[in-house]
Amino acid sequence: xxxxxxxxxxxxxxxxxxxxxxxxxxxxxxxxxxxxxxxxxxxxxxxxxxxxxxxxxxxxxxxxxxx
Length: 67
What we know:
mainly alpha; 2 helices
């Protein structure tokens, strides 16, 4: 069965690539932390705003059906 790639081989290669630590060289500048916090804050506020909009639409829907 030469030449055939089965799921065990794919899993083994994926495991080696993603879970065995490899040395890397990276530099994170001082502004990186504040950028991460800004992204987290933007996501939280975006979700809150979206929920607020849909909550208002849901309340309006039920108010119209009673009138």
